[in-house]
Structures are given as structure tokens and as C-alpha cells.
Amino acid sequence: MTEPNPATAAVRAGLASDPSHHAVVPPIYLSTNYVFTSPGESHGYEYSRSANPTRQAFASAVAGLEGAANAVIASSGMGAVNTVLHALSAPGDVVVAPFDCYGGSWRLLTALAEKGLFELVLVDFSDPAALAAALARRPSQVWLETPSNPLLRITDIADVAAHAHAVGAVVVVDNTFASPVGQAPLRLGADLVIHSTTKYINGHSDVIGGAIIAADPALHERMDWWANTMGVTAGALDSYLALRGLRTLHVRMRAHEENALALAKLAQGHPGVEAVYYPGLPDHPGHDIAVAQMSCFGGMLTVTVKHGRRGVDAFLDGLRYICLAESLGGVESLVAHPLTMTHAAMTADVAARAGLVDGMLRISVGIEDKDDLIADLSDAFDRVAALTD
Ligand code: PLP
């Protein structure tokens, strides 16, 4: 029998598998504990921190989309990052991570390095000399975020994985921005994928969650052990909602991409805009790599408006369909000011090195009607362009 295509697998994940009442949608198991048959003998499930049927249904669906057998589902994306860092690190290890990673990841990496769990080397992955110097330190882990947050820089996963493996490092890719529809890091050579399932996978801005997907079953077992031991596994209700969201991931990603590309083209050349970052634009510096390794450019678009903070205020003052809010990946359009919001944890020098500037706005383009979004954004850019020096 041939395997279903990913969109079919996502829609049908776990359907018609209820042995009790033959429900089409798998039921939610809120129970914290399960009856044993005899001391030490269970029916499979024992205690919901260790394993829960609803969480497992979501885990199997996410894992399938990333091309793996199983996944660990954490209570947040940061819970997933924290689990991997604790599972893989020992004092004396070197961890290589992007200099422009998500602000929360930067904060955790820095805090754990300061506690002595590992030595942190932050690199610009687009600089081959800097990457070679970092790999010469023989890191235990190399972390990638591509497209990066918020500048949507693209890193060649297969190339970095080959070089990192040559020095014995485990390669971890944060695939939150692309989603499993956009790229498949395990197939490109990564060892581990993590997601903030809060974003595209759930897709409705009503669940905080994370996932860890390992290519190797032994590595999966290690992650599972640490997630249970640290107590970061997700609850049943969140898992249920996230699985419901995942069923529509493929159609949502296409709609996000279509809208984001239209808005990116609108931003290009607009007199109120200084710079546009979207990997689907042919003049994006990472476009060629993105074409090679991505099958959907996604819905994240970053722009730098003219007039710095004044421009940002003019842009925001009058938006109709785009909320000023953190997070991304929901059906609704959001805009964030990275310097003061998503990346506020970064020190000023780290943020400047990562390329964050005052006039920068990160837009999570939703799936509203394209013409409405174009009209809203066009008015916002016009307000910026009308400012005088
Ligand atoms: N990774 C990326 C790329 C993110 O953007 C975020 C959150 O914004 C996280 C990880 C952390 O996820 P969570 O907020 O679910 O803990």
C-alpha cells in the first residue's frame, strides 16, 4: 500500500481509531493516571506526565510530517529547546547557535552557558570563515534557525549538517518558521527538529506548545526521558487542540504564502519602506538556497520602514486587520516590533549585531482576504511615506 501524501496524513491523523465508541475524531484523555493490571504491569499508559494517549496522537502526527516515527510534545517551544539542551549538553561542551536566533532562545542559551552547562558560540551562519572557526572548536551541538527570526536569513541545512557531522556535532534545526510544510530538516541531514507548535502547527493562537522530533529512535528515547524527567510534557487539552490545528496546516501554509508574497511585492519599492525581507522574493540573499530546500516560503515578512520609530508609530496608527502582538503563525495577521517585543531579551549590542533596527516590523501574514490585507498595508506604508524629516 502506498503511503498517503502529507496533507492527507495531516487531515486523517488518528481518525477512526477509537476502540470504545468508534468516534471519527479521537477522544481527549484528560485522566492523569491509568489502571494497572497487576503491580508493575500496565495496559501501556501509566501516568500522563510520562505518556498520554491524546498527546501521543498529536506526537505521531507531527512526527509523520517531519518524516520520523515519533515525537516528544512539550508544553512550549522553549520547553522543547530546554529539553534538547539539557539532554545533549555536558560541562565543557561547546554549543554553536545563530547570532540572530529567537530572543527567548538566546536568553536560555546565554543563561545556561552562564551557569556552566556549556560554552556558547554565537555565529553568523552566512559567514563561512566564522562557521569554520566555530566548528573547529568541535561543538557537541550546532543549532540552526532557518528562516531566522526576524530577518528571515536562510541557512543551507544540508551543507551545515555535513560540516557539523564531520566534527561530531548533533545538528538541531528550529523549524518553527517554515513548518513541516515548508521544509524537512531531517531529510536534509539534521538530527533533531524542534518546533514551537504555538505557531503554524497549531495555527490558531490558542495553545502554547512545542515538539522535538529525532531522526534516530535512540535519540528520541533520550529526549522523551528528559522531557518526562524535567516535567515539560504537554497537557492533553493542548495536544488535542494542536492536533485539530495541524489537520489544516497544508491549506493554511499555502494561503499564508500567497498573502505574504503579495504583501512583500507591495512593500518592495514603496516610498515608505527602506528594506523588505521575504525569502520568496528573487532578490532576497537566501532565495536560491530557499528554493532548493523549501517547498513553501511561509507567511513571515519583515520590513524596515523609513523614519525609524516615528515610521513605526505611523504604520501602526490606523491598522484595521493587523494586530500589534507577539507570536506568529496564526490564521490572523499580526505585527511585532522585534526590538521592543520578541527580541527585547537581547542586549542592545547583540540585537544590533543581529541586524535589528528601530524601524523594523515583523509581520505574521494571516489568511484573511488578500485584497483587505493589501489595502491595510498600503495605507500603513502611505502614512509612513507622508512623514517629513
Ligand atoms: N523558536 C522560535 C523560532 C520562536 O519564534 C519561538 C517563539 O516565538 C520559540 C522557539 C519559543 O516558542 P514558545 O513561545 O512556544 O515557547
Would you write up a description of this structure?
By secondary structure, the chain is α/β, with parallel strands linked by helices. The protein has two domains: 241 residues, Type I PLP-dependent aspartate aminotransferase-like (Major domain) (Aspartate Aminotransferase, domain 2, 3-Layer(aba) Sandwich); 137 residues, Aspartate Aminotransferase, domain 1 (Alpha-Beta Complex), CATH 3.90.1150. The protein is built from 14 helices and 14 strands. The chain has a seven-stranded mixed beta sheet, sandwiched between helices. A five-stranded mixed beta sheet has the order 10-11-14-13-12. It has a two-stranded antiparallel sheet with strand order 1-2. Helix 2 packs parallel to helix 9, helix 3 crosses helix 8 and helix 10 packs parallel to helix 14. The radius of gyration is 21 Å and the shape is globular. The mean pLDDT is 97. The site of pyridoxal-5'-phosphate has 15 residues, from helix 3 and helix 4.
